[in-house]
Every structure is written in C-alpha cells, then in structure tokens.
C-alpha cells in the first residue's frame, strides 16, 4: 500500500476532533529548556547548534484530551535550506512532539517542539525549513519558513 499525504499536521498525527497543531516559529540555540522546567536542559553537541522548531497544540474541544504521540512510531525529518536534512532528536523533554504523552485540558494550548542539531559551518543562515514526517500509512510535508 502506498503512503498517502495527510491534509494537515493534525490529520497526520491523528489528533482527535477539536484539536490542532500548527507551526509557530524556530530558534537557534546552544541549549534548550522547556518553560518551567528547572532541572533538565538539552545541550547541543560540541561544535553544533540546536534548531528548535515550535508548534502550538490547541484543544478547542469542550473536553480534556489525552495524547500519546510517543506511540505513533512516526519518523520526523527536517530539511533546512532544502539540502540539509536531519532526523529530529528523540529527547526526554516533556514537550518533545515525537515523544509527547499528556493531557491537554479543554481550551488549553501547549507548545511542543522538535529539535535537530545543525552544523553552523554548513548552515550559516536559515532560508527555509521543511517538515518531512512519515509513517507506514501517511506522510506530511510542509515548508514552514
């Protein structure tokens, strides 16, 4: 069976009705810490930088929704400037899109992130970012920058 292109990011992730996920921005940093997490920060490897890609996960339904994105076995790849492609890091961050498990309350919005490591010598500036997500049944491609 041929994989099918999902119409939306939420569709690719199989989000329940009333929930959406949308790209909100990116930042380059040496270290990333989830807002409010005092204990755990992710550091870039020596000579690398982290590219943090942020998404808003919104629950506009009238009820709390439990999500287990970790169970999906998706592949999350990110292409920068079209030719520099890396697989997203799997992290222990509580808001890592690829490993997220949690309850989003009715009306709540949460920030989820994907991180890749970039080599600053090869990526001197970011002109474009393309998300390339796939699993056995579906894929999703979106240029967000």
Describe this structure in words.
It contains 1 helix and 12 strands. The protein is mainly beta. The longest helix is centred in the first third of the chain and has 5 residues, at 9-13.
Q: Roughly how many Å is the radius of gyration? A: 15 Å
Mean pLDDT: 94
Q: Order of strands side by side in the largest beta sheet?
A: 1-12-11-7-8
Distance between the termini: 31 Å
Number of strands: 12
Helix content: under 10%
User: Ranges with pLDDT <50 over ≥5 residues?
Assistant: none
Please report which band the strand proportion falls in: under 5%, 5-15%, 15-25%, 25-35%, 35-45% or over 45%: over 45%
Largest sheet entry: 5 strands, mixed
The tally of helices reads 1
| Helix and strand element order | EHEEEEEEEEEEE
């Amino acid at each position: 069976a041929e994989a099918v292109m999902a119409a939306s990011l939420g569709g690719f992730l199989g989000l329940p009705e009333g929930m959406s996920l949308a790209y909100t921005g990116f930042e380059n940093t040496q270290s990333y810490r989830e807002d409010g997490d005092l204990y755990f920060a992710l550091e870039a490897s020596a000579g690398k930088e982290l590219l943090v890609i942020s998404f808003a996960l919104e629950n506009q339904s009238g009820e709390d929704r439990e999500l287990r994105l970790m169970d999906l076995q998706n592949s999350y790849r990110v292409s920068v400037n079209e030719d520099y492609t890396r697989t997203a890091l799997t992290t222990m961050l509580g808001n890592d899109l690829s490993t997220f498990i949690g309850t989003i309350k009715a009306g709540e919005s949460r920030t989820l992130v994907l991180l890749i490591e970039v080599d600053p010598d090869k990526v001197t500036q970011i002109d474009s970012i393309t998300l390339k997500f796939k699993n056995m049944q579906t894929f999703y491609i979106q240029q967000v920058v």
